[in-house]
Design goal:
heterotrimer, A alpha/beta, B alpha/beta, C alpha/beta, A: alpha/beta, Rossmann fold, 13 helices, 16 strands, 21% strand, globular, B: alpha/beta, Pyruvate-ferredoxin Oxidoreductase, domain 3, six-stranded mixed β-sheet, 6 helices
Amino acid sequence: MAKKIALLQGNEACAHGALYAGCNFFGGYPITPSTEVAEVMSGELPKVGGKFIQMEDEIGAMASIIGASLAGSKALTATSGPGVSLKQELIGYACIAEVPCVIINVMRGGPSTGMPTGPGQSDVMQARWGTHGDHAAIALCPSSCQEIFSETVRAFNLAEKYRMPVQVLFDEIVGHMRERIVFPEPGELEVIDRTAPSVPPEQYKPFDTSFGDVPPLAAFGSDYRFHVTGLNKAEDGFPTTKAELVDAEERRQIRKVEGAEARADIELNEEYMTEDAEVVIFAYGSTARSARYAVNELREQGIKAGLFRPITLWPFPEKRVAELGEQVKAMVVAEMNLGQMVFEVERIVKNTCKLGLVTRVDGDPLTPTQIIDQVKEVL
Amino acid sequence: MAERYELRFSGAGGQGLITAGIILAEAASIIEGRHAVQSQSYGPEARGGASKSEVIIGEAPIDYPKATIVDACLAMTQEAADKYAVGIKKGGVLLVDSDFVKNPPQGDYKIYSLPIMRTAKVDVGREIVANVIALGAMIALTDVVKRESGEQAVLAKVPEAFKDLNKKAYSLGFDKMKEVLAG
Amino acid sequence: MAYDYEKSIRPGKLPHIWCPGCGHGIVMKGLIRAMDTCGLEKNNTAIVSGIGCASRMPGYLDFNTLHTAHGRAAAFATGVKMAKPEMTVICCGGDGDGAAIGGNHFIHACRRNIDMTYVLLNNYIYGMTGGQFSSSTPPGHLASTTPYGNPDPAFDLAKLAIGAGATFVARTTAFHATQIDKLIVEGIKHKGMAVIEILDDCPTTYGRRNKFRSVVDMMKRLKDIAVPVTAAAKMTPEQLEGKTLTGVLHKEDRPEYCENYAKIIARVQGA
C-alpha cells in the first residue's frame, strides 16, 4: 500500500509526529507562531482516546502535562519564546522530579513580545539555561517539515528514556512553511516508552538508582503509589537535606544526559561536504538550509566549504566540533540571533581554527549571500 | 546549485492567495512528485493588509525556503504590487489584476494583466474564486506544472459542492492567460 | 476504640513540620477520616499540593502524592484528573498558594467544574516564609511586610470559588473538627469542583503579631465568629457583623469537565 503523503506545515507535522510517538495528552495555551500544533492536537487526540486541554496560562499548561505524565500519559505542550519563559519554573520541576514530557518552542523574535510573526533562533541558550539551578538539558532542532515529524518522535523517545523534559526548537519559518511529508508506517520509526518498575510495589522507590542513572517510573493510579516533590529528594522520593544525598542526586541527573554513553545516544548531526572542507559553516534549523545553499554556491566558486548541522543542540556536540576544528582553516557560525551558539563553538575550537559569525535579527531569514560573504571574509 | 523556480502570489489578506500557493505546491510535490516549499508572510491582521505566499519548485530538495530572485510574481492589488513585486529576475514575469493595479512597478521583466476579480464576479459569479482564476493564469503563464496537475490539486482541495465552480474558475484563468500570451 | 490514623500515614514520616497550636494537623486528621469514610482506595487517589506549610500535608499521607510548585496544585491536579478521570483527586494548600500566586489556576479549575476536592487552609498569612501578608490577611492587621497595618482588602475565598463557578463550596474552621470531615466527605462525593475553606489562623506568624495571646484565644475566636448558614438566615445584619458563615455555602449541579470531554471522545469516535 502506498504511504500517506501530504503537504503539511512544520507545526502540523509536529503534531502528527507526536501522535505517531503515542502522545495522548496535550496541555497548551495559544501563542503565535505555534498554535497550529494545538489546533491539530485538539482535533486528533479525541479520535485516539487522548486528551486535549487548553489551560488558563502557560504555567498551567506545563503543570498539566507534568501531572498527566505522572498519571502515565505521554504529554506534549507547544509554545513560543514568551511562553517558554513562563514555563521555566515547571521545566525545572520536570527536571528535578524527572518527569518525561515534550515542549515545542516555535521560535520568534524577542525578547518579550518581540516579533510574534517573524522567525528567530534566539531561544537556544534559554533551552539550555532557562530554568534556575543546575540541570541537564536535551534540545532538538529540526530544519524541515519531515524532520520535525521524526524529531518530535525522537523527542518523546528521549523524554521517556531519560525521564526528563525534552525541548524541540524550530523557528517560525519551518513551523509555518509547507513541504511534502511522507508518513512513516507504524513500526518504521522506533517508539520508546518509559521503563516501568520491575520490583513489587512495596519495594518501589521512584528514584532508585540500582537500575542505572535513569530510575524506572511508575504511574499514579497503578499498583504503585509514590511521592513526588520539587525539593531535593532521596531515592524514596521524600525531601532530604543530607549533603551526600543531595550531591549524589544532582550529579546523577547531569550524568544521565552528559555521560559519554548518553551523549552518543542523544547527539545527532548532519554533515554535508565536510570530508575535504577547509571551511565549515555551523548552522542549525532553517538557517542550515541557507547554509547548504551557500555551500553549493561556494563549491562552484572553488571554495572547499562544508556544513555541520547539529540536530541535537543540547547536549552540545563537543567531540565532533573539536575534530572539525582540527581539520578546517575556519568555522563560520550562522544563526538568527546576535550570537549564542557561537559561544559554545568558540569554547571548543578557539585554539584550532579561525571563527566567523554571521547573524540576523530583523525578521527575515539569513540569506545564502550573507553567509557566503562572511565565509569569504573569514578566509 | 539545484534548479529552482520561484513564484510569489501577493494581494490583500483574505483573498485566498496563501491557499493558491498551497495548491500549486501540492500540484508540484504531491501530484507531480517533484519538490516544493510553500511559505507566507503573516501580519497581525487576519483580513486586509498586503499578504504574500511564496512557492519554490525544483527537481531536487529545496534548501533555502524563501524567494531569492523571483521568476514569476502575481499582484492582485496596488499595495501588494508596490510591496511585493520586487526582486523579480531579469526576463521574469509579473501578472497583475488590470482593474486594481493601475501602476505596476516597472523593471526588467514582462508585465501581463488580466481582470481577475472581474472575471470571478462576472463570468463565475463568485468573487471568492478569484484566487483559483489567478492560479490557473499563473500556471498558464509559467508552465511550472502541467495544466491537469493544477486542476487536480484544485479539485482535491475544495468540497464536492464547489468542484464545478472551481473547475470553471481554473479553466477560465488558464485559457484567458493563454489568449493573452497568444496575443 | 480510638480512630486509627496510622493506617493512612506513611511510616516514619512523622513528626510533621507544623508548629504547636497550628490547626493543620486537625485538618489533616479530618481529611484522613473523610477519605476513610468515602472508602477511597489509596492507589486510586492522588493528593496534590503547592508550596507552603499546608502543602506539606501530602508527604505524610500514604497515597499517590504530588508536592508541586508554588500555586500550581490545581493545574497539576487538572492534568492528573484529565489523564485518569477514574482517580479521586484532592488538592490541599494554603491561601497565598491557592488564591494569590495560584489564583488563576484555582479560579479556572472552579470554572471548568473539574471533579476534584480542594481543601483550602486559610491561615491568613504566608507562614513558611515568616509571616508576610497574604491576599486573605484582613485589612489593618499586622504582618512582617505590613508593619503599619495591612493596606490591602482581603479575598473572601469561598465567595471567590462560588463566583468562579465551583459547584460545591463550604467553609468551617479548625475549631469545628468534626465538621471538617463531614464537609470534605460531601466535597469528595460531589461530582465537580468542591472547595472547602477551613479557617485556621497561624499562631506563630499571624496570631502572635495580632494580639491573640494564646492558641486557646485563637481557637475561641474561630468558635465565636463561626455562624452556620442555617442560623444566619434568622439573624439581623447587625448580629452578623464580624461573623463568618460556615457549612455548605453553595451547591449546584452542572456538567463535570472530564465527563464532558469523555462525551466528546465518544462522539468523535462514534462518527
